[in-house]
Amino acid sequence: MKETKHVVIIGAGFGGLQAVKKLAKDKSIRITLIDRSNHHLFQPLLYQVASAVLSPADIAIPIRSLMHKKKNVTVLMDTVTEIDKENKQIILDDKRISYDYLILAAGAKTGYFGHNDWMKYTLGLKTLFDALRIRNLILKSFEKAENHPESAKELMKYIIIGGGPTGVELAGSLAELSHSIINNDFRNIDTRKSEIILIEGGADLIPSFNRELSIYAKKKLEKRNVRVMLNSRVMNIEDNKVFLKTSEGEKTLTANIIIWAAGVEAVNLNNTFGLPEDKQKRLIVNRYCSFDEYPEIYAIGDSVNFRDEDGKSLPGVSAVAMQQGRYAASAIRDLIKGKELKPFKYTDKGSMATIGRKDAVADIFGIKFTGFIGWLMWLGLHLFYQVGFKNKVSILITWMWSYLTFGASARLIQDTPGKEELESMLYSLKK
Ligand SMILES: Cc1cc2nc3c(=O)[nH]c(=O)nc-3n(C[C@H](O)[C@H](O)[C@H](O)COP(=O)(O)OP(=O)(O)OC[C@H]3O[C@@H](n4cnc5c(N)ncnc54)[C@H](O)[C@@H]3O)c2cc1C
User: Fold this and answer.
1) pLDDT in tens, 100-158
2) Chain mean pLDDT for the chain
3) What is the CATH topology of the domain spanning 116-262+355-385?
4) In the chain, where the domains are located
5) Spacing, Cα 107 to ligand 1 middle (Å)
């Protein structure tokens, strides 16, 4: 009888889900999928939750429901704290689980380039909690301004640090919310006077895109009244203050809300891994998304640094994680069958980012699209890759509604717990 191999997958994000889908087809393999949260999150649309367009449930789906037909997959909601490579075990809070093969797909978290003290003055955008926190604080800032119109100018001032796709999309979406969607709802303030500042350290926005598209994105954001500051390096951040070094000298900006969209680093789990890491704490993997000393361990997606044939690191995007997830699954199936492995090869199909309603930039297989066509392509692709039929339908209806009515339907302020409430929640969870 064929021996059953046990594969443990850490993380049900973009990479982990693709791996499990492919592996689960082989019924002789037993799979344990572990994630610290109970849902798969479609991170590319987090900014739409933060800007009150979509609701959290539109972009998240329970992992258990995605796996319920796959009888050889067990889902565990738990946090992996360490990996015992020598004994082929992963370590959870209160137990160990043995594996024959391991796929590490634990992703990344917000990174501050070593300035972790900036975390307390800024809001990151990586989880549903982050997105809801931004949404609450932005909506609250308008409510407070309506109550205190004399302070509206300071209250409606927002800084976004990081001119990559997340920063650009969030700036465009916030501009739309404040400058057109909600203005008629207030009586004492003019929300069109909100100030949104997008800060980028380099010479271009969305630097990974073709330069023509970067210039287009800047022009379109400025047309939407976003102040774009290029070549502006953040030197320090304090309460409501950002200290910059710009080509015109040092500057200090103030804002009610400061959003950090400038960087990520691999999740903490890697610290305990004991294998080579890069500056962003990502594991450096070989051409097989694995390690020479531990060929039974695969590491994929945002938590790794994979260098292609030219020595260039692959970007931290969903397409890389998904292709590596499928690759790791095939490689494990081939290893079990004793077949020889081929190195991983990434196919770059392009990238896209929205600037706002009816406007996006897209670079698909080297062909550039902008404006309405780019936006339609962006909509189609994000719906296509969205996990779960219900979420696809719900997002499509919400987008159509927003498009026709200029509305943002998810404008609820749901207070997130304070420090004491969080501590008491943690206490009851531990009991
Ligand atoms: C705001 C934002 C916008 C983005 N926009 C785009 C975009 O437009 N296009 C694009 O291609 N990419 C985009 N990305 C990047 C994309 O989301 C990531 O590249 C992708 O999610 C990486 O997939 P992954 O599987 O490596 O990690 P993730 O999808 O992050 O999944 C990691 C999983 O591991 C779990 N996990 C972490 N640590 C542990 C642990 N210790 N124990 C158990 N489970 C753990 C997490 O809960 C999570 O479910 C965006 C990211 C963000 C944050």
Assistant:
1) 999 999 999 999 999 999 999 999 999 999 999 999 999 999 999 999 999 999 999 99
2) 92
3) FAD/NAD(P)-binding domain (3.50.50)
4) 5-36+78-110+265-337, 116-262+355-385
5) 5
* Token couple for 352: 């896209």
Four-way CATH pick for 5-36+78-110+265-337: 3.20.20.80, 3.50.50.60, 3.40.50.300, 3.40.1180.10: 3.50.50.60
Residue 326 and residue 22: Cα distance in Å, rounded?
Answer: 6
Q: Is residue 350's pLDDT more than 80?
A: yes
169 given a catalytic annotation:
yes
Please pick, among 169, 176, 200, 277, the residue that the annotation labels catalytic.
Answer: 169
What is the spatial distance between Cα 48 and Cα 408, in angstroms, rounded to a whole number? 9
Residues whose beta carbon lies within 6 Å of some atom of ligand 1: 10-16, 34-37, 43-44, 46-47, 79-80, 105-107, 125-126, 165-166, 267, 269, 301-303, 316-319, 321
CA-nearest of 137, 220, 129 to 173 is 220
> Three-class SS of residue 52?
coil
Q: What is the pLDDT of residue 189?
A: 97
Pair 166, 261: CB distance under 8 Å: yes
Q: What is the structure's pLDDT at 430?
A: 56
Q: Which atom of ligand 1 is nearest to the CA of 325?
A: 25
- Fold agreement (5-36+78-110+265-337, 116-262+355-385): yes
% of the chain residues with pLDDT over 70: 94
Number of other CB atoms surrounding residue 182 within 10 Å: 20
Question: What tens digit of pLDDT does each residue of 352-364 get?
Answer: 999 988 899 999 9
